[in-house]
């Protein structure tokens, strides 16, 4: 950061703001994660509505989910160590409407898959996120 300040006179400030995000907590008594092998390396295979992740910690898994849902996901599991994750969901841009006549997106089915297959959940929250401003 000092290099950018010296060379380009860039000035930034850090500020924590409450931002619409998702927390990734454990559903009590329902964790369905498989411990990763200690000698394995992280790998991430992605397909249409399917993820296979080897040796991932929950912080990294939250980052992967952030990329998929387009909103910051913060690890709130409290789980330590590395896990192997296999996740499958109905990948559809839009399906029929739900009971309130709103379109249901593939994200809602991804959320269900996380709950049912992993014993975790994505909960909408306003979370404090550190941001940089120039």
Share of helix, binned:
10-25%
| Secondary structure tally: strands | 9
Shape: globular
Count of distinct structural domains: 1
What structural class do the secondary elements suggest? alpha+beta
Overview of this protein structure:
With 134 residues, the chain is α+β, with helices and mostly antiparallel strands. The protein has one domain. Helices cover 24% and strands 38% of the residues. It has three helices and nine strands, in the order αββββαββββαβ. The protein has helices at residues 2-8, 58-69, 106-118, and strands at residues 13-24, 34-35, 43-47, 50-56, 73-75, 83-88, 95-97, 103-104, 123-133. The strands form three sheets. It has a four-stranded antiparallel beta sheet with strand order 2-6-4-3, with helices on one face. A three-stranded mixed beta sheet has the order 5-1-9. It is globular. The two termini are 12 Å apart. The relative contact order is 0.29. Residues 94-104 have low confidence and may be disordered.
List keywords for this structure.
alpha+beta; 38% strand; 134 residues; single chain; four-stranded antiparallel beta sheet; 3 helices; three-stranded mixed beta sheet
Summarize the structure.
The chain has three helices and nine strands, in the order αββββαββββαβ. It has 134 residues and is an alpha+beta fold. The longest helix is centred in the C-terminal third of the chain and has 13 residues.
